[in-house]
Write a structure and sequence with these properties.
Number of strands of chain A: 2
Strand content of chain B: 25-35%
Number of domains of chain B: 2
Oligomer: heterodimer
Largest sheet of chain B: 6 strands, mixed
Helix content of chain A: 55-70%
Shape of chain A: globular
Number of helices of chain B: 12
CATH class of the largest domain in chain B: Alpha Beta
Strand content of chain A: 5-15%
Number of helices of chain A: 14
Strand order of the largest sheet of chain A: 1-2
Largest sheet of chain A: 2 strands, antiparallel
Number of strands of chain B: 15
CATH architecture of the largest domain in chain B: 3-Layer(aba) Sandwich
CATH topology of the largest domain in chain B: Rossmann fold
């Protein structure tokens, strides 16, 4: 089939390997994503905190720089599990902003333009289509979360020496899996929302709502009932528990109330309540359940044609 | 011999509603027309062949590959042009077609080349850098055709390709389909409501009605048989001599009433021969009606017969005339 010949002809060249075909989807989507100036700006801003963290690591190991800035090393944040957990939390928060910007049109645009039959009539399964769309979010969020996290760990390891590295090597696992848990949750949640809502703005609003409304509701539950179980419906609080667990900083008891209390539930009653965070396994289970529901929703909505039974 | 499409007791049910009911048969044409009234199951059959709906029972094979167990291989050999508006928003047509080529397994650099070629081939070369959502309906149809052929499939499934097209664009689409068919590198499955489109493009038809095969007919063989049914209305002269002379030419005939004669013309006989014989026997030919199997006749007959068994329909399909209802006035 040559332009000048204007004839139909079969393709007789080499084909791409089957397993890698789904990667075509993120390649095209990322090209589209970086056309947006707003996104590119926010994406660049996501690297400010890693830069600050890298400078902190550098200052810890550079006596000349500390002397020049007249800072005592004790005044700096210690480079430990807490430092890296804060790093993960900060970067995952930025990751959420990127998800809100990128994810809503990923599936909804294909649904509203009836493009799914075009994808699925090719040697591409529904699972591969979803994987391709997920890869867009996984790639972008990886670039701002665990990749800089591990680079900073490597930087610290190179400056602190072998002893520190061996003693803290487990943190690489915590950084990687902590970020990946968040990335997978965000990508599945955002794609499920994208498959349910055809309008980008509404989908973005729904994502923000899913993040903040249950958190607010959970906080209200916690205040009213003097408990911490409300954290279970808050995505952010649940993930914070998981991150604390991975970095070995999880504490179950985060509060206690003893004495007379007046809330809409307790009317000047004498209470002695120990407020315990939900166990770690419950937090993992909650996240796993949310992911399972999202996968179920995607399996229902990502179809070439919807069958009305 | 492996058929292009083999249906083997293929049934599809949505909920409790059966849509396709035990379809059986082998389709071998270069261009196969899929006909049937609304709700007959044409689109469901196409979607099932593409693996969008799982068969409830039975199966089908495309070029010998099972649609359920070898779904990916089947889809690699098929190009599909959907009926409804389908495109990827905010993407130029050349990138859209390139993306589709890459998803079919063509490496990126070749895919771009193929996309340009496919768009020139369908006549969108000059507009290939415009976003598809800015295209007119006709251009969108051509873009859909381009994405269906970009990877050079062995079977091209076209679902209502001429829907909503103005006459020049329709004729361009038909000529493209015929060109692909005549090239012989790809088989075509064309679903359409428009009998004219199917008649112009296809050499085999499959008529569906209520989820059953109502007819499966090789139009090419029909045309080759070239049987001409003619009805004459005569007045005066030596009528018996006239019919004997016609019989002498090898035509089968039957008398109907005092004035009407039905006959099957042989290939070697021209209408002028009839007039000459009529003149010889002083017979006036007052009316001459052609009655030959058109696609419309076959379709209407299939619709009248309705839910006949597949086996009977399939045996009636091998080039034998199934109906001769429509008439074309030969005029006198």
């Amino acid at each position: 089939m040559a332009v000048y010949e204007h004839l139909y002809g079969a393709y007789e060249g080499k084909s791409q390997s089957e397993w890698s075909r789904f990667l075509v989807i993120p390649r095209y989507a990322l090209r589209e994503v970086f056309k947006s100036k707003l996104f590119t700006t926010i994406f660049i801003l996501c690297f400010i905190y890693p830069l600050v963290a890298a400078i902190l690591v550098y200052l810890h190991h550079n006596a000349n720089a500390l002397a020049l800035l007249q800072i005592n090393v004790r005044e700096l944040l210690p480079i430990d599990a807490s430092f890296f957990q804060t790093f993960v939390e900060m970067q995952c928060a930025f990751g959420f902003i990127l998800t809100v910007l990128v994810a809503p049109p990923l599936i909804s645009r294909d649904l509203s333009n009836n493009a799914l039959p075009l994808y699925l009539c090719r040697p591409l399964s529904r699972a591969e289509y979803v994987l391709g769309k997920m890869a867009v979010i996984v790639f972008l969020l990886s670039l701002v979360t665990w990749v800089p996290g591990l680079l900073i760990f490597l930087f610290q390891a190179s400056l602190a020496g072998v002893a520190w590295t061996w003693a803290n090597l487990w943190m690489t696992w915590a950084i990687f899996f902590g970020c990946m848990a968040w990335i997978i949750l965000m990508s599945l949640l955002s794609l499920a929302v994208s498959s349910l809502v055809k309008w980008r703005v509404v989908a973005s609003g729904a994502l923000l709502g899913l993040m903040f409304v249950p958190s607010a509701f959970g906080a209200i539950v916690n205040e009213l009932f003097l408990t911490r179980l409300g954290h279970l419906i808050s995505l952010w609080a649940t993930m914070k528990s998981i991150w604390s667990g991975l970095f070995g900083l999880f504490v179950r008891q985060t509060g206690a109330v003893r004495g007379r209390v007046t809330t809409p539930i307790y009317d000047n009653e004498l209470v002695d309540i120990v407020m315990l965070e939900p166990p770690l396994w419950v937090s993992w289970l909650a996240i796993a359940l949310i992911c399972a529901v999202c996968i179920w929703l995607l399996s229902r909505k990502v179809r070439a044609y919807e069958v009305i039974k | 011999m492996t058929g292009v499409i083999e249906l083997e007791q293929l049934s599809v049910t949505f909920g409790k509603r059966p849509i396709l009911k035990s379809l059986d048969g082998v389709l071998n044409g270069r261009a196969i027309g899929l006909l049937g009234p609304n709700g007959a199951g044409k689109t469901t059959l196409i979607h099932t062949l593409l693996g969008f709906h799982p068969p409830t029972s039975g199966t089908a094979r495309i070029f010998g590959q099972d649609i359920t167990t070898d779904a990916k291989q089947v889809r690699a050999t098929v190009g599909y042009m959907p009926e409804s508006d389908s495109f990827i928003a905010k993407m130029s047509c050349v990138h859209f077609v390139r993306l589709m080529a890459e998803l079919s397994g063509i490496p990126a650099n070749h895919a771009l080349e193929r996309a340009h070629e496919a768009l020139f081939y369908v006549g969108l070369g000059e507009a290939r850098y415009r976003p598809v959502d800015s295209y007119s309906l006709g251009m969108k149809q051509l873009a859909k055709l381009a994405q269906a052929i970009v990877h050079g499939p062995k079977l091209i499934i076209l679902d209502e390709p001429t829907n909503g097209l103005d006459p020049p664009t329709r004729s361009r689409m038909i000529s493209l389909i015929r060109q692909i068919r005549d090239g012989g590198r790809a088989r075509i499955l064309l679903s359409s409501h428009l009998l004219r489109d199917v008649e112009e493009c296809c050499d085999e038809i499959l008529v569906l009605k209520d989820g059953h095969i109502a007819a499966n007919c090789n139009l090419e063989e029909e045309r080759k048989a070239n049987r001409k049914f003619i009805e004459l209305e005569t007045r005066g002269g030596d009528r018996s001599g006239f019919v004997n002379a016609i019989g002498g030419l090898g035509c089968e005939y039957a008398l109907s009433g005092e004035r009407r004669i039905k006959l099957i013309m042989q290939e070697t006989i021209e209408i002028s021969d009839l007039y000459r014989i009529a003149l010889d026997h002083d017979v006036q030919i007052r009316r001459l009606n052609f009655k030959r199997d058109s696609l419309e006749d076959i379709f209407l007959k299939a619709m009248e017969n309705g839910n006949t068994t597949n086996g009977a329909e399939m045996s009636a399909s091998n080039g034998n005339a199934q109906a001769n209802g429509g008439t074309g006035d030969g005029g006198l």
